Request: fold
Amino acid sequence: MLSLPLSGHVNPIAAVADELRARGHEVAWAGSESFLRPALGPDATIYPIPLRLHRGQGDLGIAAIRSRWAGYVVPHAKYTLDAIDAAVRDFAPDAIGVDQHAVAGALVANRHNLPWASLAPTSMELGRPYRTALPAVEAWIQQHLAGLWRHAGLPGQPPYDLRFSPYLVIAFTTAALARPDLPEHSGRALALVGPAVGARRAGPDFPVERLDPGRRTVLVTVGTLAMDHAAVFYQRMVAALAPLGERLQAIVVTPDGTLPGDVPAHVMPTPRVALPRLLPHVDAVVSHGGLNTVCETLHHGIPLLVAPVKDDQGINAAQVEAAGAGRRVSFFRARPDALRAALLDVLDRPAYRAAAARVGASFEAAGGAVAAAGHLATLAAAGGRG
Amino acid sequence: MDDPYVAELVALLGEVTGEEPAWLAAIGAHTRLDADLLLESVELIALDALVRARHGDGADLTRYVAGLSIDELVELTVGDLARHIAAHSLAAPSGAPPR
Reply:
């Protein structure tokens, strides 16, 4: 398994790896042990590659696309290539699972002629979102992929888009959510398995006994953003919630578990909490639109207000809206009145909850980590050498 | 603000974003859409609709940005859009004297 040292990428893939191991398969990872070990547990096999930090992660908008590829994906692929190649030679896998952003895995699989699957833990590449609106950006990404192909000493041009294995593409979503952004099927096997939720918990439980069962409950969580981006949004969100104390209570997740200024009693700041045991008590989630948060929320049939900041979050927000499972608001622009109106709409209109439940049911039917493990096991058996 | 096309774009950006007068007052020809205004693709599409309604389909902003490289997109300014509109418009900017 090859991914990037980012929780949102590793967590779903780790759930698939756990399922494969439970079936008796051997799984190894190559990557930063200091990052992977806490995420994977003490028993995981890890071929260690020292963690190297990359610049530009604070960028937004188009600049974030540029820094993702030129400042992260490409240097990370070059930096990890030799260590991954050595790990593959030593471990001799029957198949490789490759995060769409861990391009070195695609290169090594081609070098050794091994079956491999692309894994899409985010929505960023799946629909190749720039191919029509910003074709020069898509071409620029393809140039980077071709450059990596040559860097790995492979002949000519990449025979296909290296983000999409010709063997198998596993996406942790379903058509009920991602229909607007699914890749065109040029002979690829696309497995839409829904979210892969592991046994490990990200953070402590929220004390649900603090919640008043007579009022609706709203969870506000905008991920691990630097507070300088989030401060204004939190301020406006608290102002949006302030007059609603009669009818609802809000759990607001912040990096340090506090909010500045006067916070009304029905607004409860908290540090990072585990979602699985909290979500059954929640009526609506306000999120930045990270795919994991969006999918966990929809899995519980809860509608969303999505305020996307960067990366694939705008894509996820648009998908939530298109599915009817919530609304998109502007993270940078929405004022308290607009946030309040949108939140009340999401809470009060049953259609949002019904649509969220439909998407959640599609996740349940898609099979998650179990289905993904089945696809990978089939791939390994077909290409395996024993 | 000298360029009437820039002035009109600032007004249209206000319509599209709902931002406050102080935010709009800080916008000039050199303001970058990406890093300075954090303009999102849905906002660009809305801006494009307003521009085409005033200046005709030839002023199409989405086709203009589709032809730009990633470095040009990062550096794209309000002045760049104003020049594109001025070059392709069927009409004078609203509120400005006819040329």
Remarks:
- The mean pLDDT of chain A is 92.
- Residues 61-91 of chain A form the longest helix (31 residues).
